[in-house]
Specification:
about 950 residues, alpha+beta, Methylamine Dehydrogenase, Chain H, Immunoglobulin-like, 5-stranded mixed β-sheet, 71 strands, elongated, disordered N terminus
């Protein structure tokens, strides 16, 4: 829908729920007069509470819609209104956006059901009209193009609907045209017809062979399907017509019921049924309907979605309603309201047999019809216990208002009076138990035990100093507990009392007897008292230890009702507890009895029928006819008839157990929690959308939001037959605690952190105390890319890659520099080697020159001198050769012995030259510089220079002993 064509209806148009508690006195229940509760849709508006309704109806899914005029919220001018269309979501009415070009501000708006998913929306003011088609599932409007002749001086027009057949009439001052509207909203011209005035009051009905138009001006006109006039119906067309009108004969209403056409004539309010075969109208008498035309101010008929019908008859000062599934059968129910409804009431329903909504006198009321199988009495009193006197009569004890005799047959009640020695005494209160034996009723009040003569109600008191908090009894004894947590046994025959437990820390709630053992439900667990010995048994779960109710069943054994909402079974042999039933609402168990396979459980949130074999559960609350949802302790009685009495905080409830189950199964209407709208980021459209498509949004399993638009808005609704009750919604996100929503059915999640989410939503009826339905939805908020693991990995890989490239480049540069350095060093070494080699050549040359000189001397020598010189030279040559041989051998041994040292040294310092490695090995042997110079056949200054260079290559300082350092390898 284009936002530029939307009128934002004021948000102050909200209609909220107010529960109206009915005032019901105890009286006889008449046939077909159902138990009911009455609620009111309250119109709360800061400017005006007046909403002039034009229409009210349900769509096929069960949502209630209203339309009308509302005073404009920001305009105080008299008569300034805006048209409004609203849908009730189970909690409040919410208005929808309307197409802005459809109307003037003061226009009226009316809804007409077209088909399963669509309404016709008619905007009208004076002689102007606009028609739209509304898709109720999408909240989308589509304008319906009216015939072109609408601008041709037509001064009146109307949209007529009957049984999924639609006609459109436009009228000028001289003639009128009628059109058929097909499913595509196309107008098919049928014919020009006789002048019809007062179109708004025109009645239209589609027949198999044509259609009828009727009002007080034209009477009753019959047309074929092409719009050709057939005839005007006269009195002879109506079989059984007794009273003739003074003027025109015309229908005040005409309608379908079970595919049969009925009409009600205006002048005498008589009903006629159309016979399709004979094309005649036959008078009928409707069962149970009072038809007094002289006193009836007006009548009206309403149909529900199932075809049931309500006939409304308004008399002076009262209004009567009659509900039928068929006008040929007995009424479903009848009701009399002691007020006169407004001239234009509206009634609608999904099912008239269960509830209906009534708009009258500026109020919208909901009537929830209870079941015939539940009847309520003494609704003004808190009920405590029962005693069946005979087949029809029951003695009822209230908390603070005494005892009453209740006649279940005629519903009458009679308060009982009490006497001591013939003198009237105040009525008893705080009763805990009844027992009847030998014409005496044994009970209690807040001043001890009572022994009451069942005929004279003469009272004898016993133990009148005790304030009794719980008790049970049989023919011989009464076991009771007082406010000080003492437990006593009272002998009815001897009137003697025996203390069983004194000043206990436990609070005793109730007792049962099993042979010689007394079992008691307490706030700390199960207590057994046998031969004055007390034993405490506790469930392992602490929350289950406070017990309220106790009952012994011959089939199921010892059963205990807990404050936590469970029924526990106690195994007397193994002294162990098992859970038989757990209440879905956690409602405390007040009392319970068994009939057949069903345990009837009175809880603090209604009555539950629990089939202990199949685990099937039915819950009954106020909407089913109970006078109050909270049941009292001690106040349940299974009657001899097999039916049940239940006492609540307000009233006695009589339950026909067989019928109530059958009726519950038959009339159970689905209760659904639905998504009505969602606002979220739609990735396919790359934008934030508000989705009203009920089919689509209720089929969502998972939604992926935008990392930037991390917000989710959800509007919810509850579909029920009883729409006006006060519902609670609660939700939890992931594993968080449940959060209750008190004021509306909207959920807003903003600024959600990245992650996966699951939202669970539950709707709970606060009045009935039932879980209405649940919904769940998964959605995710993706991580922004620069915060994702992939981005982090990308950055890490990029950084590592760049670092590796840098390291590789640096290493290549370093290796190149090192290589160049090594080359330069090698060149230096080569130069040194050359210098040493040159020095060695020079020494060898010197030695040669020395030999030559010696030889010259020997040549010149004579005699013995010559021989001596030769011997001396020979000795020098031998010594020189010996040094060279020893040096070579020494170098070989050093290489052999230092092989491991060489490997370790070269591995750590690969840039050392062979000469430097040799030098290291000689230094490691602790040779001094002179020896090294001799072994290397170099000058001692060369040794000093080589040691200095070696220190630099080994990267050691002058403080480090070179000999010790080299020995570490």
């Amino acid at each position: 829908m284009d936002n530029s064509h939307i009128l934002k209806i004021s948000s102050k148009f909200l209609l909220f729920l107010i529960l109206i508690t009915p005032s019901i006195s105890y009286c006889q229940l008449l046939e077909n007069d159902l138990q009911y509760t009455e609620d009111e849709y309250s119109q709360v508006d800061e400017i005006s509470s007046n909403l002039a309704l034009e229409s009210m109806l349900y769509d096929a899914s069960g949502w209630l819609w209203v339309s009308g005029q509302q005073l404009e919220a920001n305009n105080f001018k008299l008569g300034s209104t805006v048209p409004v269309i609203s849908r009730f979501n189970g909690k409040s009415f919410k208005s929808i956006d309307l197409p802005i070009n459809a109307f003037n501000k003061n226009a009226k708006v009316r809804l007409i059901k077209k088909d399963k998913n669509h309404f016709y929306v008619k905007f009208f003011q004076d002689d102007l009209i606009a028609i739209y088609e509304l898709n109720v599932n999408l909240l989308e409007f589509k304008e319906v193009t009216l015939p072109n002749s609408i601008s041709n001086n037509f001064v009146n027009n109307g949209l007529l609907a009957s049984h999924a057949s639609f006609k459109y009439i436009e009228q000028s001052e001289n003639h009128a045209r009628i059109y058929q509207i097909n499913s595509n909203n196309e107008f098919i011209f049928l014919n020009e017809i006789n002048l019809i005035k007062n179109i708004n009051e025109l009645k239209y009905i589609s027949l198999p062979n044509g259609f009828i138009l009727s009002n007080d001006i034209i009477g009753i006109h019959y047309y074929d399907h092409s719009g050709n006039f057939i005839k005007k119906l006269e009195d002879l067309d109506f079989n059984g017509l007794e009273i003739l009108p003074e003027e025109n004969l015309f229908f005040d209403s005409v309608f379908y019921n079970n595919n049969v056409v009925y009409g009600r004539l205006r002048h005498d309010n008589s009903y006629f049924m159309y016979d399709e075969k004979t094309e005649t109208w036959n008078k009928i008498v409707i069962n149970g309907l009072i038809n007094d035309s002289s006193s009836t101010k007006y009548s009206k008929e309403y149909l529900d979605a199932k075809g049931n019908i309500i006939i409304e008859k308004v008399f002076e000062g009262r209004t009567e309603l009659y509900a039928y599934t068929s006008l040929e059968s007995k009424p479903l129910w009848t009701r009399t309201h002691n007020f006169e409804m407004a001239n234009n009431p509206i009634i609608t329903s999904r099912d008239f047999s269960r509830s209906f909504v009534l708009k009258t006198n500026d109020r919208i009321l909901q009537f929830n019809l209870g079941a015939n199988s539940i009847k309520a009495f003494l609704n003004e009193y808190s009920i405590r216990s029962f005693l069946q006197l005979n087949a029809d009569e029951v003695l009822v004890a209230t908390d603070f208002s005494g005892w009453f005799k209740l006649d279940l047959k005629d519903g009458s009640v009679m308060p009982k009076k009490f006497y001591i020695n013939g003198n009237r005494i105040p009525h008893p209160s705080q009763n805990r138990s009844f027992f009847y034996h030998d014409e005496y009723i044994w009970s209690n009040d807040n001043h001890g035990l009572l022994e009451v003569n069942s005929n004279s109600f003469e009272v004898k008191r016993h133990l009148d100093s005790l304030v009794i908090t719980s008790m049970n009894q049989d023919e011989k004894r009464i076991v009771l507990a007082d406010v000080s947590n003492n437990v006593y046994e009272f002998n009815k025959k001897t009137k003697l009392v025996k203390a069983l437990v004194t000043s206990d820390s436990l609070n005793y709630q109730n007792f049962v007897f099993k042979k010689s053992t007394i079992y008691a439900a307490t706030n700390g667990g199960l207590v057994s008292i046998s031969e004055e010995i007390k034993t405490l048994y506790q469930p392992s779960i602490i929350e289950d230890q406070p017990m309220i109710a106790i009952h012994y069943d011959k089939n199921l054994g010892l059963l205990l009702g807990t404050q936590s909402g469970k029924i526990l079974n106690f195994d007397e042999k193994h002294k162990a507890f098992t859970t038989l039933y757990e209440d879905e609402l956690g409602a405390s168990i007040a009392s319970f009895v068994r009939k057949g396979e069903f345990i009837w459980i009175n809880t603090f949130a209604g009555v539950v029928a629990f089939n202990y074999r199949t685990k099937e559960t039915f819950r009954f609350g106020v909407n089913d006819g109970l006078s109050h949802y909270e049941c009292n302790r001690y106040s349940t009685l299974l009657l001899d008839s097999g039916n049940l009495l239940v006492g609540t905080l307000r009233g006695v409830n009589y339950l026909d157990l067989d019928e109530i189950i059958q009726e519950k199964q038959k009339n159970e209407i689905a209760v659904e929690l639905k998504f009505l709208a969602m606002t979220y980021f739609d990735a396919s459209k790359n934008e934030v959308v508000t989705n009203y498509d009920l089919t689509e949004i209720n089929s969502f399993d998972n939604i992926s939001l935008s990392p930037v638009y991390n917000t989710m808005n959800i509007e919810l609704g509850v579909i029920k037959a009883e729409n006006v009750k006060s519902y609670n919604l609660r939700y939890k996100l992931n594993d968080n605690k449940w959060t209750h929503i008190e004021n509306n059915f909207d959920l807003n999640f903003t600024n959600l952190a990245a992650g996966d989410y699951k939202i669970e939503i539950q709707a709970i009826d606060k009045i009935k105390g039932t879980l209405l339905g649940s919904k769940s939805l998964n959605f995710e908020v993706p991580v922004i890319f620069y915060k994702t693991l992939w981005f982090s990995l990308f950055v890490l890989v990029s950084v590592v890659g760049a670092l590796l490239i840098y390291i590789r480049s640096w290493k290549q540069s370093r290796d190149s520099l090192l290589k160049n350095k090594l080359l330069r060093t090698e060149i230096e070494y080569k130069k040194k080697d050359l210098a040493d080699f040159a020095s060695n050549i020079s020494r060898n040359q010197q030695w040669n020159d020395y030999l030559i000189a010696k030889m010259e001397e020997i040549k010149e020598a004579k005699g013995r001198k010559k021989g001596a010189a030769l011997i001396s030279l020979e000795k020098e040559i031998k010594e020189k050769n010996s040094i060279l041989e020893n040096n070579f051998e020494f170098q070989k041994r050093i290489d052999v012995l230092s092989n491991k040292f060489y490997n370790s040294l070269i591995k750590r310092y690969p840039n050392l030259s062979k000469t430097e490695v040799k030098l290291c090995s000689l230094i490691r042997l602790d040779l001094d510089n002179h020896d090294i110079a001799t072994l290397q056949n170099v000058d001692i200054t060369s040794v000093y220079t080589s040691r200095y260079r070696l220190r630099k290559k080994l990267n050691i300082t002058s403080d480090t002993d070179l000999n010790i350092f080299l020995k570490s390898f």
